[in-house]
């Protein structure tokens, strides 16, 4: 029989997780129905147990130390596992959770939800979205579809779609530009775009023009939106030209709501299907994985 576990009172870990997540003892207390001193006292107890600080006290809250962050990652994952298992046991209902970004969910997954659900009748499909890059530690989905280079340690990642990007615009703008315009012609219209990220996560207008051998002038007109659906909405309304990621804009091209108005550029990045490398896949997970890979393959061929 295994020896007794070396654990502090579990409530102290729950308090620590909330304090770390909020970066603020008062907010953690509000969530848990505890006073700020009660939160502080439990954190102090943990710190005494570990012989070192878990937080740096700041003017506007607290920030995790290196050892605090290491503990937070494992406590959060463990508490989420416990919480999910309790949910599963309580409802005895099978769920399949898919995490992705809003663009992929809206333009690719949503139109296929009925087909996906038909594969696994009786299973509740949950789709959740995040604007951030995939984080293996904080992610408790059964499957995730994220954009990147395919390198997420601790995961099994299979490429679904390469990053294929083409400028797109609505019919009115296309009529003005003419078919097969020179790259420079696009500079006469507002370039619709997402905010820049550091490090860069996807192709930018600068990259696209560079691939056409054109330097993007600093004063080029642009409009920035913080969600891809807004970029596409602006293009549909004729506000300018957007970069269209395949397969997200494929249905809009097919229905002639958008038109191609420039050359396609492909990079090494793409959309990947990700599963945790250390958890065995359930039968329903394997079914959905096969179906997603088939759907992607059919799209390319």
From TrEMBL:
This is LysR family transcriptional regulator. Belongs to the LysR transcriptional regulatory family. One of its GO terms (molecular function) is DNA-binding transcription factor activity. Keywords: DNA-binding, Repressor, Transcription, Transcription regulation. CDD domains: PBP2_GcdR_TrpI_HvrB_AmpR_like (cd08432). The keyword DNA-binding applies. InterPro entries: LysR-type_TF_proteobact-type (IPR058163), LysR_HTH_N (IPR000847), LysR_subst-bd (IPR005119), WH-like_DNA-bd_sf (IPR036388), WH_DNA-bd_sf (IPR036390). It holds the Pfam family HTH_1. Gene3D superfamilies: Periplasmic binding protein-like II (3.40.190.10), Winged helix-like DNA-binding domain superfamily/Winged helix DNA-binding domain (1.10.10.10). It comes from Rouxiella aceris.
């Amino acid at each position: 029989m295994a020896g007794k576990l070396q654990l502090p009172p579990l409530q102290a870990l729950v308090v620590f997780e909330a304090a770390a997540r909020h970066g603020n003892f008062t907010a953690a207390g509000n969530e848990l129905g505890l006073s700020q001193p009660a939160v502080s006292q439990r954190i102090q107890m943990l710190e005494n147990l570990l012989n070192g600080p878990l937080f740096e006290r700041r003017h506007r809250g607290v920030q995790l130390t290196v050892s605090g962050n290491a503990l937070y990652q494992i406590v959060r994952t463990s508490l989420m596992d416990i919480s999910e298992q309790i949910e599963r046991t309580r409802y005895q209902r099978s769920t399949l959770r898919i995490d992705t970004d809003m663009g992929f969910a809206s333009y690719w997954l949503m139109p296929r939800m009925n087909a996906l659900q038909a594969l696994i009748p009786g299973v509740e499909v949950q789709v959740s979205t995040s604007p951030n890059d995939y984080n293996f530690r904080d992610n408790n989905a059964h499957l995730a579809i994220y954009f990147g280079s395919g390198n997420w340690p601790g995961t099994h990642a299979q490429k679904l779609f390469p990053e294929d990007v083409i400028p797109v615009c609505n019919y009115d703008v296309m009529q003005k530009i003419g078919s097969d315009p020179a790259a420079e012609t696009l500079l006469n219209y507002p370039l619709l775009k997402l905010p820049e990220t550091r490090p860069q996560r996807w192709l930018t207008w600068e990259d696209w023009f560079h691939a056409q051998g054109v330097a993007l002038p600093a004063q080029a007109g642009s409009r920035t939106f913080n969600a891809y659906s807004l970029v596409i909405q602006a293009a549909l309304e004729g506000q300018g030209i957007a970069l269209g990621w395949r397969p997200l804009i494929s249905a809009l091209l097919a229905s002639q709501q958008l038109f191609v108005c420039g050359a396609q550029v492909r990079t090494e990045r793409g959309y990947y299907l990700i599963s945790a490398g250390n958890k065995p896949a359930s039968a329903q997970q394997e079914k959905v994985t096969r179906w997603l890979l088939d759907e992607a393959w059919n799209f390319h061929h």
